[in-house]
């Protein structure tokens, strides 16, 4: 039987992988994927706690986090396309304080 501890361990592992992707990768798309992985890890923890306590508030929070994540992806990809058109690369280390 799966307990809340199993879900929280999975959530923390997913969050650590996402944080590692954000901190260690230089590619803009990999950075966005890491952020999405961290958001999904937090969503998993919210749903696990909501299930444990028997209420729907955690799932409502997850709905709003998913809506914000969708907007973040749209804006992030638009920025990456604009950066690629300007610099011919999406290497985030080449951006110096967003000056072009």
From TrEMBL:
Keywords: Cell membrane, Membrane, NAD, Oxidoreductase, Quinone, Translocase, Transmembrane, Transmembrane helix, Transport, Ubiquinone. Its EC number is 7.1.1.-. GO terms for molecular function: NADH dehydrogenase (quinone) (non-electrogenic) activity; quinone binding. One of its GO terms (cellular component) is NADH dehydrogenase complex. It is a multi-pass membrane protein. It catalyses: a quinone + NADH + 5 H(+)(in) = a quinol + NAD(+) + 4 H(+)(out). The chain crosses the membrane at residues 6-24, 31-49, 61-84. Coiled coil: none annotated. It is found in: Cell membrane; Membrane. It holds the Pfam family Oxidored_q2. It is an enzyme of class 7 (translocase). GO terms for biological process: ATP synthesis coupled electron transport. It comes from the Bacteria. NDH-1 shuttles electrons from NADH, via FMN and iron-sulfur (Fe-S) centers, to quinones in the respiratory chain. The immediate electron acceptor for the enzyme in this species is believed to be ubiquinone. Couples the redox reaction to proton translocation (for every two electrons transferred, four hydrogen ions are translocated across the cytoplasmic membrane), and thus conserves the redox energy in a proton gradient. HAMAP family: NDH1_NuoK (MF_01456). NDH-1 is composed of 14 different subunits. Subunits NuoA, H, J, K, L, M, N constitute the membrane sector of the complex. Belongs to the complex I subunit 4L family. This is NADH-quinone oxidoreductase subunit K. It comes from Thermoanaerobaculum aquaticum.
